[in-house]
Amino acid sequence: MTSSAATADHGRTRLALNPAAVIVVCAVALTFLGITILFSASASFKQGPYYYLNKQLIGVGLAAVICFVTSRIDLELARRYIWVVGGVALLALVLVLIPGLGISVKGSRRWLGIGGLRFQVSELAKLAMVFCMAHYLASNQTRIAEFWRGFVQPLLIALVFAILIVLEPDFGTAALAFTVGVVLMFLAGARWRHVLPAVAAAAAGFAVLVLHNPNRLRRFTAFLDVEGNKQGGTYQLYQSLAAFAAGGTDGAGLGQGRQQMNFLPEAHTDFVFAVVGEELGLWFTLGVVAVFAIMFVAGVIHLRRAPNLFQFLLVAGCLVLIMLQAVINLGVVTGILPTKGMSLPFISAGLSNLVLMGVLVGIFVNTHRSWSKPGWARSSRGLEEVTA
Description:
By secondary structure, the chain is mainly alpha-helical. Helix content is 68%, strand content 4%. Strand 2 (108-114) and strand 3 form a beta hairpin. Helix 6 packs parallel to helix 8. The longest helix is centred in the last third of the chain and has 25 residues, at 309-333.
């Protein structure tokens, strides 16, 4: 074998083992599943047989374009404008609370509208929070062990985003954003004796908020007795569990599910996994879980190549956002967690979350391209930043 052929074979092997490519393939597979399920269920939608399918296809196209653009930008150059991005996200979170600007749906003010499009600003906020946390923690990596610079200040960054999201109100997304922020602090090297009391205090504060919100409290107490509240607070969850039971191991078949006929509220968004279970069966749902697990493992492997702390934390934040959101959605739909509206990444209908997922996958591709360049930031200083 010639040296050029050996080089080509080596290049193909590296491509096959590329964790970013694995993540892209998994994302495409899950997105295709989402489109298929929407196509299967579209006949029952009162807005028209292809209303949500067409919107999903537009969202997928937009997410693909944004993914490509994100994969080509210079992250270190973008880092210079990180506080501008954070400021815009915080401004959007404030604007959405203003009557007349924020669009209210079912008592929550979470969307800003441009023409006929609506965008959920908390999706932008989650991404901006990850960027801001990664930048701050990397810039202060030698002082992470300090109480003020290494704990209080980054905690305040996460809290500001979380509090504004709570005001919408959106407790679940706020908890998600705050948790991701705390995970990044831990990965950056924050002390356990600082982090654990903060987590306990945040959990206590979250419990107080739930206790003083009748709707959330009623939803939680109903969750404790699903069967007894199946005509009220747990109707949605009960129908979700019924869908899994009806699907069995093999599923009822695409388009044959009963829950898509408006028995299960939000079947195309928050509870789309129940439709997957009913129409495609147990083995297919386990396959979806396996795909998310593969994405997680690939992401962890990819992180091992990070050249500096900023990019390590940025990619880690993206990975945790995807995985934690998936875990929460799967936990809610299967009755492990109390009912909370949260999209299943890549599968649920919704423009905002699809766009966010496009950006996150684009960052994985971007970092693979830059980290694979010969001599890219492989100085001893860069490696120390990762392990600091």
